[in-house]
Amino acid sequence: MSKDTKPAQKRIDQFFSGPGGRADDWRDLVEAAKAWARGGDRAKYDAALADLSVTEEFHGYPGLQLMGALREAAATGDASTSLALATRLTQALTTRSFRQHAGDWSVNDEGNGEAPDLAPQMFGQHTARRPYFETLIVTGLSASNWPALANEWRKLRRPVDAFVYEPVIVGSLEDAFCATILNPNLAAVVINEGFGLRSRHDAPVLRSMTATAGLNDESDASALRLAHIIKRVRPELDIYLMSNRDVEAMAGNPEANVARRIFYSIEDLLELHLSILEGVQDRYDTPFFDNLKKYAQRPIGTFHALPIARGKSVFKSDWIRDMGEFYGLNLFLAESSATTGGLDSLLEPTGNIKKAQDKAARALGADRVFFVTNGTSTSNKMAVQALLGPGDIAIVDRNCHKSHHYGMVLAGAQPLYVEAFPMTEYSMYGAVPLKTIKQALLNAKADGRLDRVKLLDLTNCTFDGHIYNTRRVMEECLAIKPDLIFLWDEAWFGFARFSPFLRRRTGMGAANEIEAWMHDPKSVAAYEKQQAELGKNPSDEVLLKTRLIPDPRQIRLRVYQTNSTHKSMSAIRQGSMLAVKDVEFHRVEQQFKEAVFTHASTSPNQQLIASLDVSRRQMELEGYGLVANAMEIALAIRQAVNNNPLISKYFRVLGADAMVPAQYRQSGFTDYLAAGVNWANTLKSLDDDEFCLDPTRMTLVCGTAGYDGTQFKGILASEYNIQINKTSRNSVLLQSNINNTRSDVAHLVRVLAEIAGEVDRGLAQGGANAKKTFEARVNSLMKDVPDLPNFSHFHPSFRGDAGAKTNEGDIRSGFYAAYDAAGCEHIRLNDPEIDRRLKAGPELVSANFVIPYPPGFPIMVPGQVITQETIDFMRKLDVKEIHGYDAKEGLKLVRTEALAKIGRPKPGAQPKLKAAS
């Protein structure tokens, strides 16, 4: 939440304000203390401290005693002590030095006050740094007993412990929920029985959320209920239940599987302490990386074909030693062609790569995960090849990444292209409406071809940030075809798993929710109720308007999700993961192995595999806080750009209302920074709306400043050292990620202000002609935009076994038609022959993929009939990079006489090795 809209009274349920908001609150406290120490208004300091004290209860540092010391100094009117202590605590939080230095836990500057009792055996015992985390303790004890309870926990620490943790104590379900949301340092939760339901603090938004969840009476505050709530919000946390009743009965309850372990509450706490450390160690372990480090330290004689291994050829060379000095010795010590000696084979892992993949599956909520070392392009092609065969039909977003189109070529499958909603003003597409997808399935059913539709292949989120309602899409499609397979290309969205708000919109997150729903007895009743309402033979019109409920007894849940781990986590470039949740995987497992053998290198990069392993560790242990920070930074950028009087004259970041048409925002949600927006109505949007906007992806309109996207991207890179990825005709895409800091935001805002100032001065000093030229340029970029071409259709030569209502085609035959040089021709884009043939024929048929960057998707595919709108779009394009098109040669087309010779696939032809239906 912005400072401008911050309520007068601090509320614990304002979740927009993450790590950066907490840092701002501490800086505000220091500024108020400085003003008070100079003789200013003490009331402002008291108010700031009162605000801060509420949410600081949910953090281990500064903790109860240091916060008590702050309040005591204020109560005695000691301004200098208040300023000194507030400054020191703020510095410790900013630098995170409190994680390693005992002095930061002391009340006084010398570090000899309360530290021995506050942090016994915490520091100084190890020469190596010990990672620090915090553990949430939910208790029924009164708050007066919490300091003593915290000390009991601290006494459990031992010098041999691999980690150090600090207890955070709360006494109610609502406070436990808020601590889980607000404290990214939590790694474990201990839930004792006897706690209350309501927080002591103001929480109206939280009350509405708990009421919706059916939490109304104190009796609802059960340990098991809280455990399920926390596990849903942050599944990576280890939960320990403490019961003073029949622990055997609780342990035998299937609903208690959310707990890592259950303890009898009067037993020794040491076992619980050791269990907490063991749970964190389980996430900290990186099987492949740990073994690679051990391998690098062994004296190895290498007689395999990798001269760079061990680095001798590098460091003994007068000519390439600089490479070794740049990268360091360990990189070369860790290089090997071996798959033994503590290492493993990526092609058929049975050792530490297999263990690392299993841990990644746990982290992503999948049944299994494959590591891929040449990008998500390969992950996508592997999935398509393994799941589809010749003659199979796949419903595919025409605007998806080229790897999906090439995957269809490799598999011999027939893509049935569906169109996303256009955003013509910004020369980009959104996502595919659910109604369009359902219509494609119903058309196939009407043609008697639904059995051949095997896969729905969609991009989530899109390059520009459009997120599907993955659960709704899968449920409604499964209501029409219960065994449909789903491939969600989440190359840009891997981080979303670690946000409780965005997780529901991921393929794996929705799959887990559907799986839980299938086992709920109420699901069958809901299905049968809808069937009774629909009647025996509902029309397509009715089915398209109805939010369909599938039959939970018929569903075969088959979900695949690809993530570019290098795009949103700390993996080296080309690191990717393919996550699987498929009840029929045993039927396609051999096909997956063949796809791995087809696409994966027999010499995968060891450092890349290690980075995949380590990136999983990081996200399981601190991903929640990193993603929260990335989202907060994105909101800060949006606010800084759109609220700055100078910058906003020429630039703006588009809100959800501009990126998602109103008919797909059924909740009425407009934007994250709109007045009155909080996480309650944001969650409603995430649950109900057909499309949402990823908050970390920001479309910055630059056309209103007279710059096209490519031009502005070049200016940012060459003059200001700011790198971005995607552009459109009149915008650029900014992305916040787990690597960004508030300093990055400041740099970007300063640069935009400088550029806006230059535009402003140029218009003021250039006179009427300059203004007229500027307005013409803006009009060209913002108004005179080309219409976006839809996919037309495949030529009849590639539709030998197509249905009457469906639009799929044999893309593989179209692709290989281009291999016949004599059967192809080239016509330049502006040749009048193009216009003549568009009017009089014969039809223009593309011989290859044509992919302009931007927008970055095929506007022509092999075998597609080229229409006037596609030619118009191509002629208006002013981008330099167009894959598959040589301006000197012109469009590559299949000759009319060659089309007549192309063999047509036999109806119903089946491959020898079929993907399971």
UniProtKB/TrEMBL annotation:
Keywords from the UniProt entry: Aminotransferase, Transferase
Cofactor: pyridoxal 5'-phosphate
Record field: transmembrane: none
Residue span(s) of domain Orn/Lys/Arg decarboxylases family 1 pyridoxal-P attachment site: 286-523, 558-736
Name of this chain's protein: Decarboxylase
